[in-house]
Structures are given as C-alpha cells and as structure tokens.
Design brief:
The protein is mostly helical. The protein is built from 6 helices and no strands. The chain has a domain of about 80 residues. It is elongated, with a radius of gyration of 25 Å.
Length: about 130
Amino acid sequence: MKRNTIAAAFILAGTILVGSLSGCMPSNASNVTKSNAVAANAATSGQPKLSPAQRAQKRDELRKQVEAVLTPEQVKQLDSKIKGGEKMRKALNELNLSAEQKTQVKGILKAAYPRSQNGQSGAKAK
C-alpha cells in the first residue's frame, strides 16, 4: 500500500512539473504568428530591404552627415568609440553634445530612419 502511495505521489508531481514547464514554453504556433507579423511589418513599412553593401554605404553617408555637426574633438571621440565596437547611437549619447548639436543629430537620424505611418519603427531615435 505504501508503494502505491509513493508511486502515485511521484506521478502526480511529474505531471504537475511537466504541465508547468509546458505552460512556460512558447508554442510553435505563436512563433509562426510572430514571424508572419514581422514579415508583414517589413513588407508594409515602405522601405525596401537593403543589401549589406547598401547598408554600409548608408551608414557611411549618415556618419559623414553627423560628423559635419560635431567639433573636431568630438569627431575623434566618436571615431575611437566606434572603432572600439560601440554602436553609433550609444557613442553619440556619450559625447558632450550641445542642445543645438543634439537637435541637428536627431534630425539627421530621423531623416535616415523614418517611422512609418502605422506606428511601427525601424530604429528609434533618442
């Protein structure tokens, strides 16, 4: 009798454990829905997919526009931060930009990465 009680307890505990774990894991159906939503957003955003070479060219043009707003010392700081592996936005946030420079840089970034009209955004400007 004692063995039956212990076995039943283990089966019950195992069932609860498996049920709670499967409840925490995302189902495949939700992953498919998310990937379809991402694809739909990309298709409706109005911005064509760029090749890696085109993205690199766009980044270079954007960097030149931003550097035109910065002082020579800020350009050196930005270069060293980017060469150190930081993303441009983070590096710009760490520079001591004046209010006017911040406004100009924000305008450049918004023009380069515009938000679509349905509220979706490719990149968020700070």
